User: Fold this.
Amino acid sequence: MPTSGSIKNENGVSKIETQKKENKVSHENKDIITLTVKAQTIDELHLLQKKKSAPTTPKVSQPTLFSSSEDELSKQQLQSISASLASLTRESGPKVVKGDPDKRFEAQRVSHVSHHRITPTIAVSDSALKFTHVLYNLSPAELYEQAIKYEKGTFMTSRGALATLSGAKTGRSPRDKRVVKDHVTENELWWGKGSPNIEMDEHSFMVNRERAVDYLNSLDKVFVNDQFLNWDPENRIKVRIVSTRAYHSLFMHNMCIRPSDEELKNFGTPDFTIYNAGQFPCNRYTHYMTSSTSIDLNLGRKEMVILGTQYAGEMKKGLFSVMHYLMPKRQILSLHSGCNMGKAGDVALFFGLSGTGKTTLSTDHNRYLIGDDEHCWSDKGVSNIEGGCYAKCIDLSREKEPDIWNAIKFGTVLENVVFDEHIREVDYADKSVTENTRAAYPIEYIPNAKLPCVGPHPKNVILLACDAFGVLPPVSKLSLAQTMYHFISGYTALVAGTEQGIKEPQATFSACFGAAFIMLHPTQYAAMLAEKMQKQGATGWLVNTGWSGGSYGCGSRIKLAYTRKIIDAIHSGSLLNTEYKKTEIFGLEIPTEVEGVPSEILDPVNTWSDKKVYKETLLKLAKLFKNNFETFTNYKIGKDNKLTEDILAAGPIF
Ligand SMILES: Nc1ncnc2c1ncn2[C@@H]1O[C@H](COP(=O)(O)OP(=O)(O)O)[C@@H](O)[C@H]1O
Ligand SMILES: C=C(OP(=O)(O)O)C(=O)O
Ligand SMILES: [Ca+2]
Ligand SMILES: [Mn+2]
Assistant:
């Protein structure tokens, strides 16, 4: 820093140093000259602020500025983006130009073309004439400025995170997801009862695609992110996300793997593209549409269209669905799980539905975080699909979850939280907007993240269930058949509508702990998991992160500190060789002691004051399991008939 170092005066206070225009100041005499800035106008002064940056950040918006051979790549990038945004029915493609439309005026002023202020006028919208400005892979700082300036309800919090609103939708809309059924997917995918894949035809997809593309091109500017999925370099997928909000661009910047400048230069054509026109509704006259929200997946075209929802999780989980299709084709198992690794290289997977503790328990100060939500298990080991984490932050506390707390800083997207209007301190207990408040941050914001996010084969497979009935033990050791039974069942029971007073817990069964995202029949994933666990000698565990001492309303949620102790004992191996007893009905092996956990809570019957009600509740849950599993009784799992029989026998017996 040759000219900007500060000079201390007698009081030790820094003097601000500036520079005279004509007179290049030498280092020897810089403290004796009263300096003035090297600019004639404020605009020139502003120009001085910015150093020319890496080639991947957008250039000033005149396309004619492209000159050198380096810019040949930029031109190709623009052509590629232009192709992405092109209408498939009109001849003339969109005129795509890089950069912020507002910056045009800045550039003009400085180049002395015109000194008077040019006010941007409302463009006459004519798709054949107007430009669509592309804000390509902006940095978090640039996205903050865009978001705060243009997106109502977007603010900087006291700790530097970007707080924003996701609009009317504060969660995913699984009923509005559609998958194109064509001659290929008709046979490959899981359709019908229980499947998340609700069909649509190719034509309706194209209608929605065109609607999204037209909407995007009607805007002054769109955001484009080119990023990667999967830390396994051999199975990396290139994704392009076209969106309308800086919030969406920053969210995906955090959640997908961020390319280096070099990787971005050679990005080429994406393997998959998302058109996020979530601010614009779908047309209910379009065939297959049952609401004004539609999330449409076309595997043949390698495209996804989002209309009518701004919830950013749709993009994250939409891409996860794509991975659930692409990876099994390569003999790689895609997993809805968190993953971490001990100092000795012991890897654990944490499966579970939303809110059961994948993110909380995989973020462990004593272990390396590989990822909190989406992974692949190949012949080489595990790899994270994503480049970031998406933590629930309702009731978040610094004491209980320090690593997540500290990750909520500059760069982090905070969705739907409530904060003090002046100090901008977040109140994590406030559910005024939604209970599903979220923080999305790059994985390196967790201090002990394992970079690159890959690891060896898992040693422990932990199935998390938040049992609001309070009858499942805090921890059980599972046989392989039991692991498969519970993996296919995918049970959790959250409490519905906490605001409306005490309600019955709602049992949810979601195959593979992620039925909303799988694309093939659940038994196909289960077979791969069984094979991998068998081959690697991994142990399965069932951990109840839910209620103890009674159902929701009577009992209380198991203390996070106790669950962490249980997880510690699994990781250390100490729980493998301790004393066990078998529970009635579910036939689960439960330890009699776990270090740091009161022994009486390990068998839930001890914690219920009314044993009769306990037994009734246990039976009720067992019946729910049995009913749910009925749809799977006709399926064979893997090549082994014996395993299929064992799995069927591994459920509750009553
Ligand atoms: N015993 C417990 N184990 C795990 N999480 C708990 C426990 N008690 C309370 N929680 C809370 O439950 C939530 C779990 O959510 P999260 O880890 O984000 O789930 P997921 O990643 O599986 O969607 C967190 O808010 C966490 O603080
Ligand atoms: C992002 C999600 O994941 P989870 O709640 O499992 O963290 C979701 O289900 O929308
Ligand atoms: Ca999570
Ligand atoms: Mn998840």
Remarks:
- The two ends are 76 Å apart (CA to CA).
- The pocket of calcium ion (ligand 3) is lined by residues 358-359, 372-373, 390-391 (CB under 6 Å).
- Residues 457-649 form a domain with the Phosphoenolpyruvate Carboxykinase; domain 3 fold (CATH 3.90.228.20).
- The chain has two domains: 57-331, 457-649.
